[in-house]
Amino acid sequence: MSKKKSGRPHGHYCKICGEYKANEKFSGRGHATHICKACSRLSAAEKAEAQTITRLTNFPMGRLSANDKAWLENRLHDHRPEVAELAREVYNIHFPYAERNTRKKQLIINTLAFEIHTEVFDEYGDELPVNRRFTANRISRVLTMTDFDGDGVEQSMTLDGKKMSTLLRWAVHSLEIFMWPEDYDLIPSRNSIPPYFDLLPEYWPDEDEEADEDFSDEDVPEEEVCWRVQIEYANHTTQEIVSYQDYLMDRPEELYLALLEYFEPKIDDFDEEYTENAPLE
Hints:
3 domains
């Protein structure tokens, strides 16, 4: 009668390289310490790094214990580049929104400009052509709208500080406006400087050098701009997001409708105007 095959791998496990090897690949002492002959020739520092990389490579994919999470977070700041890079990859797999949420906390919008040149569905499901530009300034607290299909005159209003801060914070934290190029797979603008969240200003790359490396004239489409967002952050970086696709995505549309609400007459205003202009019976 044949023996049942065991699910265990053959050989002996090496905790440094993470491989199962034949018994003859281990010395007597190495067999007891789970270190193969090849790994035993490494220096203490090399052994420690290899063992850490092995643990990261075989890190559990389920819910992490508090100890595993703390250990992984410590490896993010490891002085060994290969370890820190691998730890970042593993951490992003387990916590895909952690880095995004960290970036949110570092971003404060000073100025925002949003222009739109496409059709938008109204509340009745009808498509309406829109050619408008909105601006918001956190410092002056001024919100403006220009309707290029109307009289082209800029309308403006001044919000109180709390309302303006809430509006711009909502654009970052809820709409995640800084992630639109990645989320919508948009072509970055030549004038856009990505926000360098973890670097001091003296270490930011030169704007001209970065533009030359990342962009060429062939990268910029010749189609008309559908919508464009220009942002200046409090850390003195700028971001320009441009879409040439002839439709409005969900979050840009949500931003447009939210800004439009400030300039649309309220129902009470319509009622008051109708009452004032109603013919006398």
